[in-house]
Design a protein that fits this description.
mainly beta; globular
């Protein structure tokens, strides 16, 4: 009897190993493809489906070390660059924040006030403000025209590890060892929302104007996408097997990347659809940065 299309697809998808012994399309060098059933105006037919391919990246010249800046008396935990690309700030275990000239590498200013290690920095793109978080449980807003603290945000129950400013609204997001992400009103110092759900330290947080507006990564090996309107989790990503310590949002692709000791993963917004794995460095990755040329830079515990 004549076999149906469904039976033919089933046979092709699950071939007999005895018959495929001499098949040139089988084995380690075989090309990955599949047959799917489609239906159009002329009837049902079999169409070969080719796997999606990742575009080949552009070649970039190897980077060469230009300058080594010294001045901190402890580990440098955080770096943030101003949108003008003229200066950048660093935070260290020595409890100081230093502002450097980007072109010359000269130290411009040293800010003091925290009583423990500086773990995160963020520079406002629209106002002369800089935000710092520390192991001393505090979040501070610095006026860079007066070079002093003008606001302090209190509410975290333990050390604060990450900080991010919303690109459009006057809100600030911080996360820390108390397993929460807290949303603050920059102007009034009021704590607006406490996002709970992680079961371990929240090590990183990112904000964007599109949905999901807040993304957090935790040492419980999960990533959560948050809905600001409902103040609830819209998706939980559980693909990682180890702590997620770094996130990076792409500037144009509507995707983001997550880093863990197991590997790097790329996700599609807004629902967090998994796209692909990226080669990792087999080490704990603490932070990531992406430039306009789509070059992703990692900082790992192995010293590279």
């Amino acid at each position: 009897p004549q076999k149906s299309i469904e039976d033919r697809v089933q046979e092709i998808s699950n071939p007999d190993p005895k018959r495929s012994r001499h098949n040139p399309n089988s084995g380690p060098n075989a090309t990955s493809s599949a047959l799917v059933v489609t239906q159009d105006g002329t009837g049902r037919r079999l169409v070969k489906r080719n796997p999606g391919r990742i575009p080949r990246p552009d070649w970039h010249a190897p980077w060469v070390l230009k300058t080594v800046l010294s001045g901190h008396q402890g580990w440098v935990r955080s770096v943030a660059v101003d949108v003008s690309n003229e200066w950048f700030v660093t935070g260290s275990d020595d409890r100081t924040i230093k502002i450097w000239d980007l072109a010359s590498g000269n130290l411009k200013l040293t800010l003091t006030g925290h009583i423990s290690a500086i773990t995160g920095l963020c520079v406002s793109p629209t106002r002369p403000y800089m935000f710092s978080v520390s192991d001393d449980k505090t979040v501070r807003c610095w006026d860079l025209e007066q070079n002093k603290v003008i606001r302090s945000y209190h509410g975290h129950l333990s050390g604060v590890y990450g900080v991010a400013i919303h690109p459009e609204m006057d809100i600030l997001c911080t996360c820390g060892r108390d397993s929460t992400c807290r949303v603050w009103d920059i102007r009034t110092k009021a704590q607006l929302i406490v996002l709970t759900g992680h079961t371990n330290t929240v090590g990183t947080v990112k904000c964007q104007s599109a949905e999901p507006q807040i993304i957090t990564g935790s040492h419980d090996s999960t990533i959560r996408l948050w809905d600001l309107k409902t103040q609830k989790t819209r998706a939980i990503l559980t693909h990682h097997k180890k702590s997620v310590r770094a996130l990076q949002i792409h500037h144009s692709e509507y995707t983001f990347c997550s880093a863990s000791a197991d590997n790097l993963k790329v996700w599609k917004c807004p629902q967090g659809q998994f796209l692909r794995n990226m080669q990792s460095v087999d080490s704990i990755i603490n932070t990531m940065a992406l430039n306009q040329d789509n070059v992703l830079v990692l900082e790992a515990m192995k010293g590279h």
